[in-house]
From TrEMBL:
One of its GO terms (molecular function) is DNA binding. This is Helix-turn-helix motif protein. SUPFAM superfamilies: GAF domain-like, lambda repressor-like DNA-binding domains. Residues 8-62 form the HTH cro/C1-type domain. It comes from the Bacteria.
Length: 267
């Protein structure tokens, strides 16, 4: 278990911020930061996100507050997984592990990763984080979209829009993110049964390329989704995009051409 209090203290001192000033900036009561830094109390997710925002932590540092390692070194052994993803098989194992970790430690109901195929102008659903929501609700979507990629021309969803426009979308209706292939009635049943209250679509992208999108299911309403959480998620997704881009650079142009040709020839 990481020493969260000491980590926060180090970041605070690096930023040259006193305990009192940080307490005032995040709206915490006097003395609360001292108790956090000394390990007497555990901060809430909202408090950690506020601290990360005020201290201007980067993606790796923000994730580290939740004991999630998003350093690029974590993915250096993942080249074979990226090859598998590009050839139309399964998403990289390390990426899937990180999505599940983000889901569990930040309290989401599920995270789905859709890979954008530029050649086919289509979205392939490549991964769902593990958990009851996935087991119960999304197996059908995974089966459908893994083998039947959805053309962006035929989609009218926030997931498509975040790929098209390279920006985040939020909403409270599952059908805004998941259909087709699900009908609105199926989406409503799934959301009400599992207790899903809101959804986020985030592009996985760098400055020049959108690699895909994440759809994040939440158990809280959008009223509890603040800008600090949005900024933290965007930082983490950019870090994951940088990881994917770095791994893609390791593949030769010849291998990329071969993998794309193999995938298209199977359609």
């Amino acid at each position: 278990m990481h020493d969260l209090g000491s980590i926060i203290r180090d970041y605070r001192k690096r930023a040259g911020v006193s305990q009192l000033d940080l307490e005032m900036a995040i709206g915490a009561s006097p003395g609360s930061l001292s108790r956090i830094e000394n390990g007497i109390v555990n901060p809430t997710k909202e408090t950690l996100l506020n601290i990360a925002d005020v201290l201007k932590l980067d993606a790796v540092e923000t994730a580290g507050l939740f004991d999630i390692d998003l350093s690029i070194e974590q993915f250096e052994d993942s080249l074979q997984g990226i090859r598998a993803m590009l050839s139309g098989k399964v998403v990289d194992y390390a990426l899937g592990e990180k999505l599940t970790e983000i889901q569990n430690k930040l309290g989401y109901k599920g995270i789905a990763f859709s890979y954008f195929d530029q050649d086919l102008n289509a979205l392939h659903l490549r991964y769902f984080s593990t958990g009851p929501a996935v087991d119960f609700a999304f197996k059908y979507i995974l089966d459908q979209l893994s083998f039947n990629p959805q053309s962006l021309d035929n989609l009218d969803t926030y997931t498509k829009q975040c790929v098209d426009e390279n920006r985040m979308f939020t909403g409270e209706v599952l059908s805004d993110f998941a259909s087709p292939p699900l009908t609105k009635m199926q989406c409503k049943l799934i959301a009400s049964t599992i207790g899903l209250k809101s959804f986020i679509a985030l592009p996985i992208a760098d400055e020049n390329t959108v690699y895909g999108a994440l759809t994040i299911a939440r158990k809280e309403s959008l009223a509890s989704f603040n800008q600090n959480e949005a900024r933290a998620l965007e930082k983490m997704m950019k870090q994951i995009a940088d990881m994917i881009r770095g791994l893609l650079k390791l593949l030769s142009k010849e291998e990329l051409f071969k993998l794309n040709h193999e995938r298209i020839s199977r359609r």
